[in-house]
Each structure stands twice: as structure tokens, then as C-alpha cells.
Amino acid sequence: MIDTHAHLRQIPLGSAASPFDKGDNTQDFGIGGLKWVVLSASCQQDSMDNLELAKTNKKLLPAVGIHPMETPLSFGHPPLKKGTKTIDEQIIFLDNLCQKNKNIVAIGECGLEYGTNPSKSPFDKGDLQNMERLFRGQIALSLKYQKPLIVHSREAAEETVEILKSYENLRGVIHCYAGGKKRIKKYLEISSDWYFGIDGNLTYETGLEEVVKNIPKDRLILETDTPFLTPVPHRGEINRPEYVKYIYQKVAEIWEMSFEEAEKIIDGNAARLFQTKPFVPR
């Protein structure tokens, strides 16, 4: 099993899986039984922490990126001490990390945030061009370093597709996919190198079952989005990467095949996307 999207830094202190509780970075982080875990980043601090966490356990594979909801340009969000203000400087910051850390496996999460709650939007509605610049800047890094892109857009599916279509040789995953059949087709038409990430809400949102049925089996990967979107039977608790097994179980049920057969397909997809070894010694 592989968890292709987790935010270990955001697990609350005091939790058994918190990587920062009492300064102990040597514990299991809730990844028992997994081959590896992709550490997704949503801000500059996330990106730096992921690189540090990856040093503590060979199963942890770091990604670096900045989502528009987490940029230092957010209203009322002061720049990080080691961060910068302008979009160009943020891209340079990520570029420097990629240059110095060859173990980075992906760029992201990044994308567009056209959410319905303006109070949470880091950009004024008249300044969406800056959000696109931040997104395109990370797309450029994905191409420069030949790393997959982790895309997380809200209320901006059509805009996201149009942007991704404008690039060649781009590959990645649409994180926490919950769109309809038509959107699946649109992403598939971009290229054969785009995948769909499915999360724990598959275990309690019946509508997502039809979504999974319409995603080609060779384009599906699974993710916990730890510490969020905890699957049944642990819904309501803090999520952990090892809970990805419940999503595997659900997909195997939907595909009407054994757990082992589904696992082989899904893990092969993840290894192909992130271009890393499918098996890590346990």
C-alpha cells in the first residue's frame, strides 16, 4: 500500500502520529505496513519540514509546493521568517529547494482557489492573475525538474484544465478528485500522464463510488490527505497514512476484485507517476 498524499506536519501535537510531538522525529508516524508515503506541501514551511522529515524515515518521500490558500500573500498572514513576499521570490525559493534536494519526488500541492468563501481567499477577486502566476510558476518547476505536479484546485476545474492543456510533457495527479464523468474525460484528454487521487471520503460518500467506476484503473492512486478526510471506520478521528488501507478495501470492492489484485494495480500506478521504486523494505 502507498499513501500518495499526506500532511504529517499538520497532525496535532500530542497525537500518536505527530512527527513534532516532544521533538521526536523517529517514531512510526502511522505508516506501519506502507511501502512509502508522499509528503505533500502547501506552503514554504511545509516544504522545508517535508525535507527534514524525509531524513528520519526512508518511506517518507518529500514534495515541495505552495497552495494559494497558504501563500504568505494571504490577507493577515505575515511572511515566514525564511519566506518571501512576492510570487517570483516564492518560486525561486522552491527552485532552490529542488536544486539542493534531489530526493524531492513532486511539486505541490498547487492550483487555483476560486472558493465560495471570500474571507478565506488569499487573493482579491480582481487579482486572480497572481494566483495563476503562482500556479504556472510551479508548473514550470515541474517541467524543469521532470517531477509530477500535485494539483489541488477548488471551484476552478475548467480553468485548471485549460491551463494544464497549454503545456506539453506535463504529468501529475488531481488531488482529492470528486468531479463528474465529463471532467474525468477532460483530464484524460490532456495526456496519458494524469492520474486521479481518491481519498477517505470514498468510504462514506456513495456518489464517489460512481466516480471511481468511471476512472480508468490505470489512472487511479490513493491518498489519505492526513490528518484530514479520515475514512470509515475511523471517521471523526485524526487521520493517519496507514488508514489508506480502508480506501484500498473500498476500491477493491467497487472493482469487484481481491484486495491484493487492486493493490498491485494501484501501487503500480503510484510508482509509475512518481517514478520511484514500488517497494521499500519494511
Structural overview:
- The chain has 282 residues and is α/β, with parallel strands linked by helices.
- The chain has eight helices and eight strands.
- It has an eight-stranded parallel sheet with strand order 1-2-3-4-5-6-7-8, sandwiched between helices.
- Helix 3 links the parallel strand 4 (106-110) and strand 5.
- Helix 2 runs parallel beside helix 3, helix 4 packs parallel to helix 5 and helix 7 (244-255) crosses helix 8 (259-274).
- 46% of the residues are buried.
- Residues 22-26, 74-81 and 278-282 have low confidence and may be disordered.
Please give a quick description of this structure.
This protein has helices at residues 44-54, 87-100, 128-145, 157-165, 181-190, 207-214, 244-255, 259-274; strands at 2-6, 36-39, 60-64, 106-110, 149-151, 172-174, 194-198, 220-222. It is α/β, with parallel strands linked by helices and 282 residues long.
